[in-house]
Amino acid sequence: MKKVQTGQVIEFYSNSCLVKTEFGKFSSLAIKNVVVGDYVELEIIQDSKKITCRIQSVLNRETKLSKTLGSKRKLFAANISHVGIIVTPKPKTSTEFIDKWILKSKLSNIEPFIINNKIDADSDREYKDKLDIYKKINIKVINCSAKHGDNIGELINFLKDKCSLFVGNSGAGKSTLSSRLIGKNLKTNALSNDQGVHTTSISSLYEIEDNIKIIDSPGMRDIEITDYPKEQIINGFEEILVAAKYCKFSDCNHINNEGCFVLESLANGQINQSRYNNFIKFRDHG
């Protein structure tokens, strides 16, 4: 067995992590800023009693996601390719929640998509119109029922060769959906490290067939976006970004400036009102 191996962090605890390599899974003390999904160089230390491991370095991250805790930004996952935003009629998911996650994903070079969960529940015209907003801007929408398993096959097919993180409001069915896909009840899943100490996993990465990777990160619901520069916010609203290129003035505020093509597109229905409202809110108020 090689003394130094490359592996991926698949479980992260408060002070240790589990790393998967081609030779098996190894527990290691965590180093600063390592997160679930990271690829790492792992040193294997073998003595007469047991094998111990030490992470030497974190390899280059393709993508990373962070959350703001007080005045600090803290990484919580790396190398994610897609974020699945779980949307439900009850409890009702707001366009603000959806647009926040589309923005965060886009600014992190991650592809967002929508999971319309609870298709067995009644939904009104307003809810269907909400989903249409995102279909029109080419956000992938997959309909399913995590509870009953309806249309799970389409979701599995979409997830092939991707590393995805699911996000949703409380009651949206994130744990139910993840449990169905992974084949393990995440609500009751007890985890322990190699020292026999039961602890709470901050995040876990599950790999199933067809190279599907799912990162489960408890507590990932609403997020703050106040730490993004104002000028970057438009990048989460592609239809507004495109329209803004045709404004009369390059420094157009898209609120009351003369020759604003964004406002013209809003008036003729090319830009949705709720998307516009959220853009202005996120940019000017955080």
What does this structure look like?
This protein is globular. The chain is built from seven helices and 13 strands. Helices cover 24% and strands 28% of the residues. The N and C termini lie far apart (51 Å). Helix 1 links the parallel strand 8 and strand 9 (111-116). The protein has three domains: 4-58, OB fold (Dihydrolipoamide Acetyltransferase, E2P) (Beta Barrel), CATH 2.40.50.140; 64-216, Rossmann fold; 230-285, Probable gtpase engc, domain 3 (Ribonucleotide Reductase Protein R1, domain 1). Helix 1 crosses helix 7 (273-285). Strands 1, 2, 3, 4, 5, 8, 9, 10, 11, 12 and 13 form an eleven-stranded mixed sheet that branches. It has a two-stranded antiparallel ribbon with strand order 6-7. The longest helix has 13 residues, at 95-107. It is of the alpha/beta class.
In short:
This protein has helices at 95-107, 125-136, 152-159, 174-182, 238-244, 261-267, 273-285, and strands at residues 4-12, 16-21, 24-29, 39-46, 51-58, 64-69, 72-78, 82-87, 111-116, 141-143, 163-167, 203-208, 212-216. By secondary structure, it is an alpha/beta fold. The strands form 2 sheets. Strands 1, 2, 3, 4, 5, 8, 9, 10, 11, 12 and 13 form an 11-stranded mixed β-sheet that branches. The chain has a two-stranded antiparallel sheet with strand order 6-7.
Would you tell me which CATH topology of the largest domain applies?
A: Rossmann fold
Largest sheet: 11 strands, mixed
- Described by the principal axes of the CA atoms, the overall outline is globular
CATH architecture of the largest domain: 3-Layer(aba) Sandwich
Mean pLDDT: 89
- What's the number of helices? 7
Low-confidence stretches: 190-199
Q: How many extended strands? A: 13
Which structural class matches the secondary elements?
alpha/beta
In helices, the fraction of residues equals 10-25%
Number of domains: 3
| Helix/strand order | EEEEEEEEHEHEHEHEEHHH
Q: Could you name the CATH class of the largest domain?
A: Alpha Beta
Radius of gyration: 21 Å
Give the name of the CATH superfamily of the largest domain. Answer: P-loop containing nucleotide triphosphate hydrolases
C-alpha end-to-end distance: 51 Å
Strand content: 25-35%
Oligomer: single chain
